[in-house]
Design a protein that fits this description.
Chain lengths: ~475, ~475
Amino acid sequence: MATEASAIEQTVAEAERALRGYSGHDVPDDKLLRDCVHCGMCLPTCPTYRLTGSEASSPRGRLWMMRAVADGRLDLLDDAFDEQMYQCLNCRACEAVCPSGVQYGPLVEAARSQLEQHRPRPAWQRVARRVALRFPFDDVRRMRAMVSGLKLYQRSPLPGLLRKSGILRLLRLETLEAMVPPVREPALISGEESWEPDAATNRAHLFNGCVMSTVFSDVNRAAGRSLAHNGYATNVPARQQCCGALFVHAGMMDEARRLARINIDAFESAGEGKIVVTAAGCGAALKEYDHLLKDDASYRIRAKAFSDRVVDVSELLGTGDLVQPGGDVSLDVTFQEPCHLAHAQRISRQPRTILEAIPGLTLTEMRESSLCCGSAGIYNIIRRDMADGLGDRKAESVRDTGVSTVVTANPGCHMQLRTSLRRNGVEADVIHIAQLLDRAYGGQHAAERGDWAFTRGDAPHQSTGKS
Amino acid sequence: MDRTQLIADLERICGPTNVRSVPSDLLVYEYDGSVDGAVDTERPLAVVLPDSTEQVSAVVKLASHNGIPVVARGAGTGLSGGAVARGGGIIIALTRMERVLRVDPVSRTALVEPGVINLELSQLVAGQGMFFAPDPSSQKACTIGGNVAENSGGPHCLKYGVTTNHILGLEVVLHDGDVVWIDAHGPGAAGLDLVAILVGSEGMLGIATKVLVRLMPSPDSVHVHLAAFGSMDDAAAAVTSIIGAGILPASLEMMDHLTIEAVEPAYHAGYPMDAAAVLLVEVDGTRQEVAETSDRIAALCREVGATSFRSAASPAEQELLWKGRKMALAAMGRLAPNYYLHDTVVPRTKLTETLQSVNDISRDFGLPIANVFHAGDGNLHPLMLFDRRRDGDVEKVLEASHALIHACIEVGGALSGEHGIGSEKRGYMELVFTRDDLVAMAGVKDAFDPRGLLNPEKVLPKGYVCGEVRALHNQAMAQKHGIHPM
Ligand SMILES: Cc1cc2nc3c(=O)[nH]c(=O)nc-3n(C[C@H](O)[C@H](O)[C@H](O)COP(=O)(O)OP(=O)(O)OC[C@H]3O[C@@H](n4cnc5c(N)ncnc54)[C@H](O)[C@@H]3O)c2cc1C
Ligand code: SF4
Ligand code: SF4
């Protein structure tokens, strides 16, 4: 018995020696990891736990695994670890409810960075990831080119033909294709447009984003107009880039840092004033630049100053000071809270304040309005099953409210909601909150009435410096 | 039976995606909500996630046939190690059985599966003017099955009673996999009231697969008040005079200064940061009744020297005041990396005296202790704050705990108000119970579970369940199945 036991101990000891732990940069902070007292209070808010009932798919389980890797009890490259670090939607719902203040987001991002650094991936996978993520998001111009291609595609007879032919299904591009709403307006090019109220009381700089400036340029313009209506001289600083959130979520920290530095430079030279964001996911990432660049001596302090200036458009406008809209928008709506708004940024009240201020609009709350819809960056493309499960659950919640329109505030949610509603046969539109507000203010026509001056094609120095 | 065969059989019963068997998947089932250090973690042999009574029954049958222990698990928020598989048995996680099968607003009952989350049941029936009364602070996460097993209580149990008062019937899978339905006794019923025995049995007598619960009508009116005091004694005096005046508030909760320090910065609930203690008092009933009682409580608090008395004006404000209390436990992470929570109950009349002992122990051991508790029924929750990684801290906490438990027992207290004994406090059972008591309990266990396969090594101290013999047996079995303690 005794010898057997010691034999086991020896095997265990050997196995432990072979376990790979954390090393290199972005090691999950041990102190933060140990803030988790495994009380389990976060479980019911976690979308992946709700779908599976499995402890491994819960925030507590994931934190425990991260800790086990740190303690040398679990191999960093264990499949179960990899699976869980990437099954997580990084929706941060757990973080918002954790009574012990566990900072889950930075921890899972660091764990992913560890996997990125140490996981041997087949060469084709590495290339595929590079292309899939880096190509479009690394430079806004590339995204623009892709989206104008997409626009041509949407307007051509091609979509119908391809769908019928089954080629999309074959290439697994169906979801992607169905997600993207019709691109209505030309891309909003940073540095080229601004909105000037007659009597500006404040200045705002619009964060343009990659998907927002292209697929959703109409939303950004609506936000610009609404800001102007509220007395903000608003411009879109030149030289800004994608926020880098998708890189952070994928654990590709170096790529994210590169973009962060570019954005800090761009908004510093734009001068004082709030940095206003229309995509909750970008806003959350921008507000965490200080964390992302904490080890960068020359950017650390500037990153903090940058993050402090960032506000979501509904956070800035959804207060008692909102200029009361005059136009009537008769719609029955419900509000889907983007995770990165409600959980990561804890903004929940302000969007509702805006919705309640719009004449004619009726807001019906849905069940689980802050449960993740399954979008989570590019999650819905890489983790179809889980994402579809959440999308279906969301569609049912929408159906039960009987509303005609779902309001949200993030491009990922926007696209995921579109597909989920369509797949489940729920006839409801999806709209960004800034578009609704803009409509209530009279939209583009208000500009024509002379409520504020809209400038396009100004010399770059005017849009970045003057306003 | 060899391990591969066992896993294959479990997969056949529950479906391959609902069985966990590789070590890295089992890792996350080695803990529950208990404090690090107070309860040893332990990896189970396997975990199954059944979704019907039939599956639970088949798993138990299979396990019983092979002499393998089984442990039911709800949300794993338990604080006494109840859901940790001692000796490496099969964990039956009931988290996928979360359907509300029937709500009857006329008889005010609901039939639910065990994995239904406590608060979500109340939310579901709120529209029909009802609620499920037992409200542990963990109600956002814990399951009805766990509540039944632990006979959980909460702030509102002062007026409404604990879980056992709200369970009308249970479907139970017995040790050999048989399924039975048992009704709770109404007044005048004859025979043994088995529901009363099963509720609070910590998963040692059977696994609940359906629960018929009583729902209470939502009160017309609710008031929440916050009284602040310059000393713990004054606050305790207020409790005594409120109860002494024949008032039965819906709840009567007390928090000391240290707790306020953890909670207030986290939730901005409006607790005065300079108070030595606060009392959170909730009164419910008809509008007039509530108004009158509230006035009386305000007067009584002022009489014993309350430094302030504030009433929540809106439901949102009520919720905020409550949030501070409900989240208090968990907010302790802000004061220290680890806490050890005790759950002793003392007679209400000994409250002041016991709080003094707690204070002394804190001083003697140099260990901060926060007090947040159900003052109305004398259920103390002293929280010892420590840092597991600091040398000697764990030992200090265990010694201080020993002293604390002794102090409570000396004034006629009980080991646990609501968190159960589990594996955490089974070593203390002999302090409170005589040999005869324990033999009697072992007899009940034996009648339900003759081979000791249901949640072994819990509640009853070693020796009363042939502990040593069984531990050896389990060890041998773990080795046979290739589970290595890590
Ligand atoms: C922050 C926090 C606050 C808490 N506050 C309170 C409080 O105020 N009052 C209170 O009473 N408790 C409290 N608890 C303790 C705990 O939440 C309760 O004991 C709860 O009832 C456990 O439910 P669970 O679903 O998490 O059960 P688990 O922890 O999963 O299991 C607990 C026990 O029940 C058994 N069990 C679970 N399901 C079944 C079933 N279907 N059939 C048979 N046995 C079963 C398990 O084997 C185990 O022994 C708190 C815990 C935390 C973390
Ligand atoms: S993350 Fe927070 S809520 Fe979740 S188990 Fe850990 S301490 Fe509890
Ligand atoms: S971030 Fe979202 S998906 Fe990930 S563990 Fe937290 S709640 Fe779950």
